[in-house]
Design goal:
Blueprint: H1 9-26, H2 32-54, H3 61-79, H4 89-114, H5 118-139, H6 143-161, H7 165-203
């Protein structure tokens, strides 16, 4: 429109500053999700290792339960009421990353049921976990998540080299513990410290 006035340098900088602050707020990670999924994956992998060792009839029982719980949690995440937040480019991009992650996971699981061996399939899953952590770590500027991604990639390579599925589950449990749970604990402590400092500064 002819009446539109060009933004001044000050207004442009103010808008950019506001967008950066909003983006930081949207991608704040308290580490609880990594602790939750990490604990579930760790226990399931360790349980599968034990089932194979004792010769259980259904060695994938733990993963069946894990899949059911995952579907319930995803359904809860989709349908639960959400607070209205300001939409940003980075926020929308992270949603696409989440969707791509979930679709990739279910694609690999589907492939494991018709064509891919469990030995390779779980290695691919760990690769997808690593890529997801790298993107999330970069968005949140979290070095611990990037470290976790590197650990899980190393675990995936180890699983491809190893040919005994029982030890694949042990490798996965170790990689998840170091690459998911430990970063989750560190991020949760950092978040609590940040909240405490913020509340202290506000009260002053």
């Amino acid at each position: 429109m002819e009446n539109d006035q060009p933004l001044s340098n000050e207004k442009s900088l103010a808008i950019i500053h506001q967008m950066i602050n909003q983006a930081k707020t949207n991608i704040t990670d308290n580490g609880l999700s990594w602790l939750l999924w990490g604990s579930m994956l760790f226990l399931t992998s360790l349980a599968t290792f034990c089932f194979i060792t004792i010769g259980a009839e259904n060695i994938f029982l733990g993963w069946n339960i894990f899949g059911l719980v995952t579907i319930l949690l995803l359904a809860y995440g989709i349908f639960k009421p959400r607070k209205k937040v300001v939409k940003t480019y980075i926020g929308d991009l992270m949603k696409l990353v989440d969707i791509g992650f979930v679709v990739s996971i279910f694609t690999v699981i589907f492939a494991m049921n018709i064509a891919v061996s469990p030995n390779s399939g779980f290695g691919f899953l760990l690769m997808i976990f690593s890529f997801f952590m790298l993107v999330k770590g970069g968005a949140a500027n979290s070095k611990v998540l990037m470290f976790g991604a590197a650990v899980n990639w190393a675990g995936a390579i180890s699983m491809f080299i190893n040919k005994d599925f029982r030890y694949d589950m042990l490798i996965m449990a170790i990689a998840i513990f170091i690459g998911y749970i430990i970063p989750g604990i560190i991020m949760w402590r950092q978040y609590k410290t940040q909240v405490h400092q913020t509340s202290s500064n506000t009260s002053c």
